Amino acid sequence: MGDLAKIFKAYDVRGVVPDELDEETAEAIGAAFAEVTGAETAVVAHDMRESSVPLAEAFTRGATSRGADVINAGLGSTDLLYYASGSLGLPGVMFTASHNPARYNGMKMCRAGAVPIGGATGLVEIRDRAAAILASGTLGGEGGGSVSERDLLRGYADHLRTLVDLSGIRPLRVVVDAGNGMGGHTVPTVFEGLPVELTALYFELDGTFPNHEANPIEPDNLRDLQKAVLDVGADIGLAFDGDADRCWVVDERGESVSPSTITALVAVRELGRHPGAAIIHNLITSRGVPEIVAEHGGRPIRTRVGHSFIKAEMAETGAVFGGEHSAHYYFKDFWFADSGMLAALHVLAALGEQERPLSDILTEYTRYAASGEINSTVADQGAATERVREIFAARDGVTFDELDGLTVSGPGWWFNLRPSNTEPLLRLNAEAADEIQMAAIRDEVLAVVRS
C-alpha cells in the first residue's frame, strides 16, 4: 500500500510502481472514484506501460465493487480518453505517467464531458475516501458492476478529422517521433487516407522507452526527429509525449518551433471560424500571442500555468482555444480538453493549404526572443524571489504582478519566476525584443537566483 498523500498531486495521481502505487491502492482508488463521483458507468483507458493493465484492472475491480459499470477502452492516448468521456457523457480514468520514466504510473481522472478532476474539484475527496477504504479493510465486495470492452480508436480519429478540414491539402512529407508512446498507436489511424508520406520513428509501444524519454520539451529528446526531418527532406516533424496529449513541432530546417508560435497559429485559424472569440494563453507564453490574437479580432485572456486553470477559464469565458508553453493545446470543440493530435492536424492543414515552407509561414507568428524554461535548484525559493524583486524594483519603468509567481516587465522585456509545487526549484522564463537583450535579462536573473 502506497502513501496516498505522496502520489495524489494537484491534477492527477502519479508514483513509482509498486513502492508508491500498487494494485491494492489502485483498487481502493477505483472504489473511492465510484463513490465520490456517483458514477453509474465509467470509462477506463491505459497507456503501454507494463504496469498499466494490472493497475487498470485493479481500479476496475474497485469501481465495480461499488456498483459502477466500467467500459474498458483498452490502449489509448489521454486525449482518446477525453474523447471517450466527452462523446459518451461518462466520467473516465486514464492510466499513464505521461513522460515520466518507466518505473512510474498514474491516473488522470475526469467527470462526464471530460471535465477535469483536480485538487479543488474532487481529487482530495477521492484520496481521503481511498485512504479510509484501505484503513478499514473494506476492499472487495459484490457490488454488481459489469465490465464491457469498446474500441474507440476509429471514433476518436474520425471525430478529430471533423474538426479540421484537411481535404484540400497538398502532399506532405511528415516525420513523427512517437517516443515508443501512445502516438505509435493513434497516429496511423488518424493519418489514414491523408496525402502524407509518413516516416515513423519509435512507433513500437514500449513503456521502458528504449530510445529516449517521451518528453519533447527537453531538447535532447528531439535530436532524432530533427535529424530524420533533414535526412528525408520532410516538410515537418512532430514529436508526441508518452501519453500523446502533447505535440512538439519541428520545421523543415530541423529547427524546434516554440509552442507559443503554434498557439498563435492555431488561434488565428480558430478565430477565422469564430470571429471575436476569446483565446486563452498562460502567463509564460510569448507576449506575441495576445498581440496577434488582438490583431485578428480575438480577445486574449491570460491565466496561470496549469491545465485546470486553463480549462476552468475556457469554460467560464467560452474561449474557443487555449495554449500553453508546455505544448498542451485546448479546444472548445473538444470538450475544452487538450489534444496534441488536434493541434498537429491544424498545423498540417495550415502547411498543406499553401506552397510555402513551414519556417516561412511561422515567421508571421514569431516576434520575440525567448529563453525557454530554465530550472534552478534553490533551497529558499521565497528568499531568492525577493532578492530579484528588490534589484528590479529600483529601476525605472518596471512593473510587477503575482498572478503566478513573480512576473517582472520592463521596456521591451519581461520575465517570470515561479516556484515548483513539488521540488526545490525556481523556474525562469524570459523574453525580449531580441536575443541580446533576452540573454542579458536571463543571465542577470539567474546570477541572483543562484547566488
Automatic annotation (TrEMBL):
InterPro entries, per the entry: A-D-PHexomutase_a/b/a-I, A-D-PHexomutase_a/b/a-I/II/III, A-D-PHexomutase_a/b/a-II, A-D-PHexomutase_a/b/a-III, A-D-PHexomutase_C, A-D-PHexomutase_C_sf, Alpha-D-phosphohexomutase_SF
Cofactor: Mg(2+)
Domain Alpha-D-phosphohexomutase C-terminal: 373-447
Keywords: Isomerase, Magnesium, Metal-binding, Phosphoprotein
Domain named Alpha-D-phosphohexomutase alpha/beta/alpha: residues: 6-123, 155-254, 262-368
Keyword Isomerase in annotation: yes
Gene3D superfamilies for the chain: Alpha-D-Glucose-1,6-Bisphosphate, subunit A, domain 3 (3.40.120.10), Alpha-D-phosphohexomutase, C-terminal domain (3.30.310.50)
UniProt superkingdom: Bacteria
Pfam families in alphabetical order: PGM_PMM_I, PGM_PMM_II, PGM_PMM_III, PGM_PMM_IV
Family: Belongs to the phosphohexose mutase family.
Annotated PANTHER family: PHOSPHOMANNOMUTASE
Protein name: Phosphomannomutase/phosphoglucomutase
Taxonomic classification: Bacteria, Bacillati, Actinomycetota, Actinomycetes, Streptosporangiales
